[in-house]
Every structure is written in C-alpha cells, then in structure tokens.
Amino acid sequence: MKKTSGGLKIGTRYVSWGDVVFDVCNYSFMVFLCIVMIYPMLNTLAISLNDANDAMKGGIYLWPREFTLYNYQYVLKENTLLNALLISVLRTVLGTGISVFCTAMVAYVISRKEFVFRKFVTIAFILTMYFNGGLIPTYLLMRDLHLIGTFWVYIIPGIIGVFNLIVIRSFIEGLPNSLIESARIDGAGEFKIFFKIVLPLSLPVLATVSLFVAVYQWNSWFDVFLYNSSNPNLSTLQYELMKILQNTNATMSGKTAADAFANAQADANTVTPASIRATMTIIASVPIILVYPFLQKYFIKGLTLGGVKGE
After folding, report:
1. Inter-residue contact 241 to 283 (CB < 8 Å)
2. Per the record, GO CC terms (predicted)?
3. pLDDT 10s digits, 191-212
4. Three-state DSSP class for 10?
5. Strand order in 7-10's β-sheet?
6. Backbone φ, ψ for residue 61 (5° rounding)
7. What is the mean pLDDT of residues 236-256?
8. Torsion (CA) 33, 37, 38, 43 in degrees, nearest 10
C-alpha cells in the first residue's frame, strides 16, 4: 500500500480518499450495528448460564461470572416438556408446510389476469386484515367446527396468511409471463405450470414466508391457552415455559427483596424470575436460529433459478 497526495495506491489499484473515508465509516457502522444486535442475545445467554444468586447483584454482560447449568436443569426437569417439544416441532413443521403451500396456490390463482374474480377475491382477503369477529365469536366458531381439544386447531385457522398471500402474489406477478405462456402452448395445465415453473422460481419468497410462519407457529402459546389448556397432551413448549415462569413469579411474589436475597444466599441452587426468563428465551430462540442457515441456501438457489436474461 502506497500513500499518494490524491489517495492510496493498493498494489496496482488506486483508491481515492473519499472511498477510504466511506469504507472506514461504512465498516465502523456495520461493526457497531452487529454489536448492538448481538449483545442482547449474548447478555441473555450469560445470565442464563450464571448462578441466580450472583446474577441478582448485576454487572453481568457478555460472560457468566459464576457458571452453572442449574437454570436449565430447573426448566428442563418438567416431565411435560418433552411431549410439549414434540408438539411444538410437529406444529411448526406441519403448520409451515401446509400454510405456505396453500397460500402459494391461492396467490398463483389471484395473480392470473385471466381470473375474472381476482379483484373481488383479493379485496375479500385484504378486508380480513382489518376486520375480524373478535375473540368470543372466533372461539364459538372453533367450537362449532369441533376443533377445540384437537391438534388441528393449531393448523387450520392459520392456513392462509393474508399478508403472506399478498407478498407471494406480488412476487409471482413479477415472474416473466412468457414462461407461463410457453408452457401453455406446449400443453401444460395450471397444476403443472404451478408445480414445475412457479414454485421453483418462487423459492426466495417461499423461503422468506416459511421463516415468518415458522416463527409464528413456534412462538404461539395463546391459542393453546384458549383451546387446549385442559389437555396436557396437546400443550406446546412455549405454553409450558410460560407456566413455569408464572409459577416462579407466584413463588417469589410473596417475598420481599431482602427475604428473596437472603434465601438465595442460603440456597446454592435457586432460581429467580430474571434467570428463568433468560433461560426460557434461549431455549425458545435457539431452534429458530438454527433453522435460518438451512433456509438461506434456498434464497440463493431460488435467485439462481429465477434468473432470466432480459431482451
């Protein structure tokens, strides 16, 4: 690297001072942004791995001061968690697959200009984003459909997501219409066009929507509380973690801060609401974090398949 009056010469390439300043500012901002985004997760992980007694003193940032796994042992000792984990995984996989597939099919239909009722159907779907029947009518509907107390109450009500429908429809409308017309000339039907052309080219948006739906399904617990709270076999991980947190808060609510701290000092193996919240956050977040790298390759693959040379 050689310094000149007009900038820097790196090998055979000349870089102006403006580019140097821009790169320094850009990289500095990106590093700062990464720190801001990563720090809360690392701090939560540190608190979850730190002794609850010591954590009450504060001052824990990126690394646990007194390492322990008791917080995780306390949360995971519940016998119902394994079954709840299986229900959550099953709900997330089935709910995401069925919802994305059905939403993509409807999006393809309303994206076709030759569909006479496309505007009416689109408006009817959009209206549901702004108006709904409310909690009690929805509960009565689920009861009349005999979905309460069943696993399918997690899947059927959310099969079509209107926001995701609009996103997928907009993406399909941007695909080259010449591909679909060529397939029709060759004798392909609508189902073959959808499965052989539209779906492969729509992988980027389908992967994005899949992530949205998967996060929603994985984090949902209120519908469990409404429809299946009396059936422990259909309880989800999020609902069980919420009950553990409520029980911990109820246990600690009758104690003053001084009593809680004195009892914590006397008992080496104890938990606090703060330590339980941190532990639950890590347990609930890690599976979604692990899923994203697998979806990322579909972004790249979908962009490659969707590349059409313009004329």
Report:
1. yes
2. plasma membrane
3. 899 998 899 888 888 888 888 8
4. strand
5. 2-4, 7-10, 13-16
6. -120, -80
7. 74
8. 130
Query: Is 16's pLDDT higher than 80?
Result: no
Q: Within 10 A of 285 (CB to CB), how many other CB atoms are there?
A: 16
The answer to whether residue 28 is domain-embedded is no
Take residue 30 and report the two structure tokens written for it: 């990106």
- 26 contacts 17 by C-beta, under 8 angstroms: no
CATH code of 104's domain: 1.10.3720.10
SS3 of 56, please?
A: coil
Q: Which domain holds residue 124?
A: 70-311
57 token code pair: 């003193």
Contact by Cβ (8 Å): 32, 43: no
Within 10 angstroms of residue 216's Cβ, the number of other Cβ atoms is: 16
pLDDT, tens digit, for every residue of 132-181?
A: 888 899 999 999 999 999 999 999 998 998 999 998 998 888 888 888 88
